[in-house]
Automatic annotation (TrEMBL):
An example Gene Ontology molecular-function term: nicotinamidase activity
Pfam family, one: Isochorismatase
Pathway(s) the chain acts in: Cofactor biosynthesis; nicotinate biosynthesis; nicotinate from nicotinamide: step 1/1
Entry EC no(s): 3.5.1.19
Residue span(s) of domain EF-hand: 21-56, 63-98
Organism this protein belongs to: Brachionus calyciflorus
Sequence similarity: Belongs to the isochorismatase family.
Protein name: nicotinamidase
Entries under InterPro entries matching the protein: EF-hand-dom_pair, EF_Hand_1_Ca_BS, EF_hand_dom, Isochorismatase-like_dom, Isochorismatase-like_sf, Isochorismatase_Nicotinamidase
GO terms (BP aspect): pyridine nucleotide biosynthetic process
PANTHER family, alphabetized: LD05707P, PYRAZINAMIDASE/NICOTINAMIDASE
Keywords on record: Calcium, Hydrolase, Metal-binding, Pyridine nucleotide biosynthesis
PROSITE patterns to which the protein is assigned, alphabetical: EF_HAND_1, EF_HAND_2
Amino acid sequence: MTEQNENGDFFLKYRNETLFNDKNSIVQCLKYFDKDNDQSLDLNEFEQLLKSLFSHNGNSYQIEMAKIKAMFDFFDSNKDGKIQLIELENFWFKIIKPTLFPKNALLIVDVQNDFITGTLSLTNCPSKHNGAEIVPIINNLIDTVPFETIAYSIDWHPADHSSFIENVNNRKLAENSPIKENIKTFDSVIYEAYPNVLQILWPAHCIQGTNGAKLHADLKQVDAKTDSLGRSVIYVYKGCLSDIDSYSAFFDNCRLNETSLHNDLKKLGITDLYICGIAADVCVAYTSMDALGLNYRVIYIQDGVRGVDSDNIKKQEINLVNNGALLIKSKDVYDMVGCKDRRPELAYATFLSLARSNKV
Ligand SMILES: [Ca+2]
Ligand SMILES: [Ca+2]
Ligand SMILES: [Zn+2]
C-alpha cells in the first residue's frame, strides 16, 4: 500500500501554523517540487508533491492517476497544464491545510445499556453482536489519543415515542403505510403525521431517565474540567420528540429538527470526526452520512462499531466509502490524529465537495 517516498516527509515542518501561513512557504514548496525549474508543477511534479503529502512516516500512499489528474485539472485554473504559484496557493489552503491541521473529535454513538444488555440488545438482533466488546476499544482510544473533543450521543426517548412497537396503536397510520395489521417488532410503518418517512418499530428502549438509557457503566466519560489532555466534551441527545425518530446524531429522520451537535462541533472548529458506537448500520451509518453532508472528514472505526444486521452493516459501509468516508481500524487512529499518517482519501473527499460546489 505504501512505498518509501524519495522526498521523505517534506511537509512535516509545515505543521507549524505560523510557518504554514507564511506565503514564502508556498514559494519554497513550489521550488522544492519544481524539478525542471520552470516555476510551475507539471503533472509528474504534482504527483511527487501528493506522494509526500499523503504518507505515513515518510512512506507514500498510492493514489490512482485518475484522482491525481482530477485534482490537478481542478486547481489548474488557467488550464495551461501546469500549476503556477497562485494555483498552488489555492491548493495549499484548500487541501494541504486540512491535511496538516485537522481538528479531531471522537464521536461515540449511543453506547447505552439498552443496546447492549437491555430491551433492544444487539444480541437479540440478526447480527447477535455483543455491544460491550467495543467498550474497551473506545476506552483505549479515549486514554491514548489526543483528540480535541470527545462527543457522546445519547438516544433519549419519551415513553410515548413513535418508534416503539408498544405504542403502535396510539397513532394513526397513513394510507400509504406498507403494513397496517398484525404489526410486529422490526416491521416498518408510516404514520399519518409524517407521510414521507418509514418508521421501523423497535422494542421500547432508551426511555429518558431510565437505566437502559444510561451509557454503559464501563465506558469512560471524560470530564472536561479535569481531563489531563484538556479535551472538550460534548453530549448530544437525540430522538427526544415523541412523533419523530432520530437515527442521526445531527438531524431527525425527516431532517426537520437539528440537534446541538453540528453547532457545538463548529464552535470548536472540528474538521475530522472519528466515529464509533452502536448501531453500525443504523445510528452510526446515519450519523456518518450526515457528517459527510456537513463537510466533515469522516473516519469510521470498523472495530469500534457493532450493529443490527451483518449484511446491512457491510452495505452501509460500502455506501459510506462511496460517499467519501474512510474506514479504518482503531489501531490506526493514533498516527492519524497525530498527523503522522495522512490519508489521500480524506483530501479527495474534500476535493470532491469543493468540486461539487465549484469553489475554486
Ligand atoms: Ca516544473
Ligand atoms: Ca496553470
Ligand atoms: Zn431509538
